[in-house]
Design a protein that fits this description.
single chain; three-stranded antiparallel sheet; 5 strands; disordered C terminus
Length: 191
């Protein structure tokens, strides 16, 4: 947190930043300590900081680098990069938001759903898939079949899952396209 002085902007900002730091520390410790199949991490303090500090940025349209919210985003980005670096080569890092922000008091419907990892195709899911389809997409990534609603991201994720060698062989017998893994980055905006 020392590299991000704006996170000590006030008592609440500092408390929320320390909460995020502790949650990220715990996630890194879990990854370092052993083989895991699934890790879910929710950064509620990030949402609270966003609502608390979005007002001064609203409509300004320029990042002068001095605000606590922008430092918070930079800090979380740095910590996600560290966490990604700790993962095994065949692991994926999935991150998403449940909404964006339009003003300090109003949510934006657009949100982020991004996947990083070996075999994840570069690009965006077509259109604006609904976030309510994310659980089915995550289940598909883990090889679990469901009848949950599919709302636009699943076709992209089926290609990503097929890129894994074991999955590609199984999918090939079902008529799915055989693809070669590409760059390990993708971000899809979801609605």
């Amino acid at each position: 947190l020392a590299r991000f002085p704006a996170l000590a902007h006030d008592r609440d900002t500092k408390k929320f930043a320390e909460t995020i730091a502790a949650e990220m520390d715990a996630a890194e410790r879990i990854v370092r300590e052993g083989e895991i199949d699934f890790l879910f991490l929710r950064l509620e303090a990030l949402d609270l900081l966003t609502h608390a500090h979005f007002g001064p940025l609203d409509g300004r349209g320029q990042d002068d680098g001095a605000g606590p919210l922008l430092d918070t985003y930079r800090y979380v980005d740095l910590r996600l990069a560290v966490l990604d670096g700790l993962l095994d080569r065949d692991d994926w890092l999935v991150y998403l938001s449940d909404h964006g922000i339009r003003s300090a008091m109003q949510h934006e419907e657009d949100a982020i759903f991004a996947v990083l990892g070996e075999g994840v195709p570069t690009g965006r899911s077509p259109g604006k898939p609904a976030l309510r389809g994310v659980p089915r997409s995550l289940a598909a990534m883990l090889g679990v079949e469901t009848d949950w609603p599919e709302t636009g991201a699943l076709p992209w994720l089926e290609v990503a899952v097929a890129a894994e060698p074991a999955m590609a062989e199984a999918k090939a017998t079902e008529g799915a396209p055989d693809i070669t893994p590409s760059e390990p980055t993708v971000a899809a905006r979801a609605r």
